Amino acid sequence: MSGPIRHIVMWRLRGETPAERSAARVKVKTLFEGLRGRIDGLTHIEVGLDVSDVDYACDVVLFSEFTDHAALAAYATHPEHLRVREALGDLRIGRFQVDYPIKETGA
């Protein structure tokens, strides 16, 4: 697979109280945004925190783009990414992922 690829991950997070869940959301956002500019091939990273408060929603979404599939594969084992995963520990109780090629448009 060649060309740019989009990597989207959503998490449900641990937290007994709204304050604990809020702190967990901020921690995930801060850690992943700290990867900006640190990983070759990572061209875009954005982290969103859910504001819907519906019981079936995920807490956090990571929206990232890579130059190609090889860059995404390298990201998975990159020391900076592994550091973030370790720092998050068992904070995540659910994880959902979608990777797909980005189609270039003329518009």
Mean pLDDT: 94
Percent helix among the residues? 25-40%
C-alpha termini separation: 24 Å
Fraction of residues in β-strands: 25-35%
Taking pLDDT < 50 over at least 5 consecutive residues as the criterion, the unreliable ranges are none
Q: Strand-and-helix sequence, N→C?
A: EHEEHHE
Total strands: 4
| Main sheet attributes: strand count, strand direction, barrel closure | 4 strands, antiparallel
Could you give a short description of this structure?
The chain has helices at residues 18-33, 69-76, 79-88; strands at residues 5-13, 42-49, 60-66, 92-101. It has 107 residues and is of the alpha+beta class.
Would you kindly provide a written description of the structure presented here, covering whatever features stand out?
This protein is an alpha+beta fold. It is 32% helix and 32% strand. It is built from three helices and four strands; from the N terminus they run βαββααβ. The protein has a four-stranded antiparallel beta sheet with strand order 2-3-1-4. Helix 1 (18-33) runs antiparallel to helix 3 (79-88). The longest helix has 16 residues, at 18-33.
List the helices and strands and how they pair.
Elements: E1 5-13, H1 18-33, E2 42-49, E3 60-66, H2 69-76, H3 79-88, E4 92-101
Helix pairs in contact: 1-3
Notable traits:
alpha+beta; 107 residues; 3 helices; four-stranded antiparallel beta sheet
